[in-house]
Amino acid sequence: MQFYLDTADIKDIKKYSSWGIIDGVTTNPSLIAKEKIKLETRIKEIAEIVDGPISCEVISEDSEGMLTEARKFATWHPNIYIKIPMTAEGLKAVKILNEEGINTNVTLIFSLPQAIMAAKAGATLISPFVGRLDDISFDGMQLIEEIVTAFNNYKFDTKVLVASIRHPRHVNEAALIGADIVTLPPNVFDKLIAHPLSDIGIQKFLEDYKASNQT
Ligand code: G3P
Q1: What are 126-180's pLDDT values in tens digits?
Q2: Distance separating alpha carbons of residues 92 and 106, to the nearest angstrom
Q3: In 10 A of CB 102, how many CB atoms?
Q4: Residues with Cβ < 8 Å from 44, sequence gap 6 or more?
Q5: How many structural domains does the chain have?
Q6: Using one digit for the tens of pLDDT, what is the confidence trace for 196-211?
Q7: Which residue range is the domain that position 180 belongs to?
Q8: What burial class does residue 31 get, using C-beta atoms within 10 Å of its C-beta: 0-12 exposed, 13-18 middle, 19+ buried?
Q9: What is the CATH number of the domain that holds 47?
Q10: How does DSSP classify residue 203?
């Protein structure tokens, strides 16, 4: 299972990548907007830190515009994956980018048919948004189960990247279903590593050792 960071915050990217278990980074226009820095500058900074796929999203709504943006982003670094929204125009762009050997991540996936269409267009990754489905009382993880099953049935190469993750339980379930990748906001990363019994255990070991007067 691969762990990506879902942020464009360079401090967080440095902090969590230092743990040695980060395989990639996902960004989106909202995350970039928060940073108040030029997209190209930030994406190149991220690529200096993380040696893995870095998703960078287009903002055009027509396939021609998407292709122009995508080809420009792809010159910034070999690890750039072009994030394309799940629309008919997006599918057209993904098909062409796949033929050109440019990796893509089809985003804003909310149903199994959307996932299948993106895979058929040749998406390298797809991003189903589990948290946003849960937010409107649908079952985000059920969608992941359906996509993983269908992709196995048809032997699609497209990898399933679970996005819009809100809490560690989403990661548990994604792992048991067999999703390829989870992209984690920094606050979820902190919750993943924390366990009260780990903290209590460390404290007790240290106290016992000190009490034994070892040199
Ligand atoms: O980057 C895409 C996705 O992870 C966004 O998550 O929390 O805005 O629904 P969220």
Answers
A1: 999 999 999 999 999 999 999 999 999 999 999 999 999 999 999 999 999 999 9
A2: 12
A3: 19
A4: 76, 77
A5: 1
A6: 999 999 999 999 999 9
A7: 2-212
A8: middle
A9: 3.20.20.70
A10: H
Sign of the CA dihedral running 166, 170, 171, 177:
negative
- pLDDT tens track for 134-149: 999 999 999 999 999 9
- 52 vs 82: CA distance, rounded Å: 13
Whole-prediction pTM: 0.95
CA 91 to chain centre: 19
Ligand 1 shell residues, CB under 6 Å = 6, 26, 28, 129, 131-132, 163-164, 183
Indicate whether 5 pLDDT > 80. Answer: yes
In 105-139, where does DSSP find H-type helix?
112-121, 130-135
In b/e form, how buried is each residue of 166-189, taking b as 16+ CB within 10 angstroms? bebebbebbeebebbbbbbbbebb
Mutate which of 4, 13, 28, 189 for ligand 1? The one with the most ligand atoms within 8 Å of its CB, which is 28
- Which run of H or E residues covers position 189? helix 186-193
Which of 132, 138, 171 should be mutated for ligand 1, with most atoms under 8 A from CB?
Answer: 132
